[in-house]
Amino acid sequence: MLENSGLFEDVLIPYVLVEKTDDVLLFLKRYNKILLKPVFSNQGRNIIVIEQLGDVYRLMDDNVATEYSYAELIDILNLKYLNPTYICQPFIESKTKEGSPFDIMLHVRKNENGEWQKVKIYPRIGMGKNITSNISQGGGISPIVPFLQSNFGGEWKKIKDKLELLCRTFPNRFESLYNYNLDALGIDLGVDSKGNIGLFEVNTYPGQQFFYAEDAEVRVAYYRYLLQLK
């Protein structure tokens, strides 16, 4: 949907729907390090990274990295990653200076005027993980400004401005893909060492366990707005 709309070129990561082993092998040849994840995500589970190191292929999940030959790689792909459906993407090196994976969540919600509003921008850091930063899998969160300052130095403000702009522009673009109204979005982004931003996924029922009060204030204001429309 995102690709066909033509509205998300600023954040869309190249991908292929995995139907045969060649889909993975071609992406691996092109990018050298790729990510496989289920089309229907499950809180960061069942995601792997494949990296080619000469004649050796390293497969990583959140807990372990294992090296295989080409023939072994083909066997594993056929056995595990052709069903259910996976997508393949270049691996975005969204990692802290210490090497921990992170993503940045833009939590937006409609307000008292029925318009999209930023509730929270926050990084999620995968503590002791190889790939994912999903909080349900043992990650943590941080305030956005000191996190960006610590990991991106003098470029932190430029990245923060990009995130703020996406909070304002992304929700209306995304909602336009549907024939019904949405009320909240969790926009999950990766940021590489050069400050390039890529979209990991969008949640239409985002969690708010770390900022209940801030979320509830905007949410209740939107409920009042809806009541006025009756």
Can you characterise this structure?
The chain has 230 residues and is of the alpha+beta class. 31% of the residues lie in helices and 28% in strands. A hairpin with a 4-residue loop joins strand 4 and strand 5. The mean pLDDT is 91.
Contiguous runs where pLDDT drops below 50 for at least 5 residues: none
Strand order of the largest sheet: 1-6-2-3-4-5
The geometry reads as globular
User: How would a crystallographer describe the biggest sheet?
Assistant: 6 strands, antiparallel
Ends apart, CA distance between termini = 32 Å
Secondary structural class: alpha+beta
**Number of E strands:** 11
Mean pLDDT comes to 91
State Rg.
19 Å
Number of helices in the DSSP assignment: 6
Run of helices and strands: HEHEEEEHEEEEHHEEH
Q: Tell me roughly what share of residues is in helical segments.
A: 25-40%
Bin the strand percentage: 25-35%
